[in-house]
Amino acid sequence: MATLSDQDLVFSFLGDPTRRPNVRRIDTHAASVFLFGDRALKIKRAVRLPFLDYSTLALRKAACTKEIEINRPFAPDIYLRVAAITKAPDGSLDIDGPGSPIEYAVEMRRFDDSQTLDHLAARGHLSAGLPELLADSISASHAVAPRASTSAWIESIPAWIDAFAASFRGSQRFVEEDVNELRTLCHAAFSQLRPRLEQRARDGYVRRCHGDLHLANIVVIQDKPVLFDAIEFDERIATIDVLYDLAFPLMDLLHFEQPFAANHLLNRYFSTAVNDQTGGLATLPLFMTIRAAIRAQVFLARLDRDDGDRSATLEIAESYFQLARRLIRPATPMMIAVGGLSGTGKSALARALAPLLGPPPGAVVLRSDVLRKHLFGVQETERLPAAAYTPDSSLQVYQELAKQAERVLAQGFTVIVDAVFSRDDERAAIDDLAKRLKIPLVGLFLVADLRIRQARVRDRSNDASDATESVALRQEDYEIGPLTWTQVDASGTPETTLARSLSLLPTSP
């Protein structure tokens, strides 16, 4: 008669409803989590896999210790300690009892798992400001992440591409021609991007990151996103370009059909990252594609383990696969310039337009108000003195806007430039840029009467603009000059302005 292993005994002990009423067990390929009361205990399963080894008690204890070490900076209120499961001489088990340890667990403070971002996104319940808060959390984690002393992860990318392609072929779930095309496009993109990736590694952008930032590993606690379950079992998998870390939630938001959230995450991250990351924009299509393809691979692997709805699992795998195919395809970028006096709704329009424009996850928004604050080294909502608005400083802002727009466009992304553009030479500079780059340009100039503009300016809060009602009044005397851009009546609702503007684009998004 077979005897139970120590781990089997531990699982029976922790899952005993007579000891822990309403206990719930969640199993993955590498761990079993027991939820009870306000606590969760995560046990490493006694397995050896190609990418991890938990086959001995010593290895599992070390893995638990490492998980606490890696995750506590992300989620200090969740990750508490390593707890020992002990066995007394009489055979009874306890948590941190007087007996000998036969297993170890990561003890965590339990949270409401219905508030993980995958559940919220599936229900369409992502709050309006959540993507920006998530961007801030990810950016902060990257700012303190240890820099890698090697760029070995770059060498591993072709192997990852070949691995998921081989997995897709072996499953026989996807059309072989589609798999081959995906592999070919990924390798071609990698070859083109390799010099850029190597330069980013030299610049310190390869760091020890979270490594597994899909939406199920982000939870909202007290209205703030918290990152958890970072990779602890393999430094190599988590030592990556910071934008490959960002690419996971960007891709997953697109998978859950949340393009607005994905775009706002993108723009907030690039606006607030400690180091300028815009030079890495070109990497995102490949990074998001790899993330989507590996996610498809993960769900295909679950087909062999799941006792539940296999058709649903296959459907998810298929959706990630098709998303990967869509993300790797190059798109033609365009430039949209949104001008207008203060209070016409330029920034609201830019923010609404950006998610609707290709390539995914939408256009990069460059806002003069934000750029001016960056140039003066202050926070976005910190008010600048009048000296920051001299003709010379404004010229510098517009020149920098054009420079950054060119940088974005050169990497294949659509850009929206948001500024007053009250002078003919400011608009002409944007026109000339588009002509020189042979990029389609749509110039929109929003108009609304003074009363509406002043009311909107008055109602602003926590915004980068320093415009006041008196500024709006003074702007009435501006000599706009001849307009070659299309005037858009912006006196109505933001939705009406968006609809009017969309009708002016050369193709429907």
TrEMBL record:
Give all residue intervals belonging to the Aminoglycoside phosphotransferase domain: 130-269
**TM annotation in the entry:** none
Q: Which organism is it from?
A: Bradyrhizobium ontarionense
Can you tell which superkingdom this protein's organism belongs to? Bacteria
Q: Which InterPro entries match?
A: Aminoglycoside_PTrfase (IPR002575), Cell-binding_unc_protein (IPR052732), Kinase-like_dom_sf (IPR011009), P-loop_NTPase (IPR027417)
Q: Under which name does UniProt file this protein? A: AAA family ATPase
